Here is the input.
Amino acid sequence: MNRLAASLTAAALAAAVFVSSAHASTRGAFVMIAAGDTVALERFERVDARVSGVVLFKPAQLRTEYAVQLNADQSAASMTLDAWRSTDLPTAAPLQSAAAEFVGDSVITHINGGARMAFPSSAGAVPYLNPSMLLFEQVARRGLAMRRESAGVPMFMVAGGKTIEAVVTRASADTVVLSLGGLEIRLAMNAAGDVTGGAIPAQGVRIMRAESLPEGLLVSAKPDYSAPAGAPYTSESVRVRTSEGFELAGTLTKPKGMQGKCAAVVTITGSGSSDRDEAIPFVRGYRPFREVAEALAARGIATLRLDDRGYGESGGNAVRATSEDFAHDVEAAVKFLRARSDIDGARLALVGHSEGGLIAPMVAARDPKLRGIVLLAGPAYDGARIIAFQQRQALERGGASGAALDSLAASAAAETDSASRVNPWLGWFRKHDPLMVARTLRATPVLVLQGATDRQVTPEQAEILGRAFRDAGNRDVTVRVFPETNHLFLADPNGWGDGYSSLPDSHVRREVLDVIGEWLAPRLKN
Here is the structure.
């Protein structure tokens, strides 16, 4: 555990009462800790009917400053938001700015001072910016102000524009529980309605409160993508210009001592913005694409991995982008490699994980010169079916059953349908049929890899996807399903997402890396 976390102590708790509409003027900070590491820091201020703060979310490499004006019932009237890369100095211009007004059952937004967008929501909503603990506190205050044993509070998710319901329950005199589907957040609250600590048990997260944060902590050091000393490969920082004019930042890994031009692969991340290593929050040390690059370098193959558009060091904006747009970014990466004198543009392949396994066939369908595609947990079903399954599974895991389960699932489906009308990515994903694309790839070699305990893209989809490629007449299709392996290709006997952070090993299974390398090497030969 780092020194900052070790030095923090929780404030004394007083007898709890329902929060009144008056707001004390307070300042403070929160620290979020997972697996012994600080993953998020937040400095905040609450003055009268205004709450504001700055959140540094280390896994997302993002720093966000927000301010929310409150109504008397603790719901939101308006919000402003500015976002920077976590490594940007406080004096830098924000990458993005937004303003929102909460009017009845709608949220009206303006991004970068641009066009007005209206998102369907619910009256009395509270905005939520992941992973702000102060806004969790505000959700709890809103629920307690309703003076019920359990109260539903609509939460407007700033990232994605979707509204979900949090159930706020007074568990004891000094404990409030927020339930979000199958996820439970336990908050210690004092008589003034201040969160003094808490936990997200399923993710192994602890929340600690401090009086202040030392200056400089809200700016991160740049992530290190370089090759370690003595590594048998080199790592070069590169910039890839896209068809839309912005640049993607990335790392090109090449084996040392290679004579002539290298074969190469481009990695494609899954859904949600990711860095080039596809690191994810709350799974300490998980950097799958770095491990893929290292494994391929040992076989004489170069790897280009990129920060997603609008993320890390990359330019562009993902707010209104769809998987089709991300496919164009991959095509720009392929074009970049073909223009390099040290890469053999005739010997290129793609490796995509999850949504990346959906995108790779789209790119290959337009580029028959690719020597192969590797799909790691690539979906066979359309997005509507996948989302419905995941929603129902989360509700069941949260304890819902019978008629209550059916009702909640129907409500979740209606919310998704509504959100898909204003969220371009969701609208596209719900309708896209991966099997239609698979049936167009008649000659591109395909490797489909799947974990047997994957709870996000279920294991039977691997063979369904493989069959679709074969139905097109493709004679080079390989399907492998790894036992006790989850969606992240980690060793995991049950595969539940809420257990990822507690797994003993956060490295991609060695046999998965070996299969990727053994399959690609002969197909990328001169």
Remarks:
- The mean pLDDT is 90.
- The longest strand covers residues 37-47.
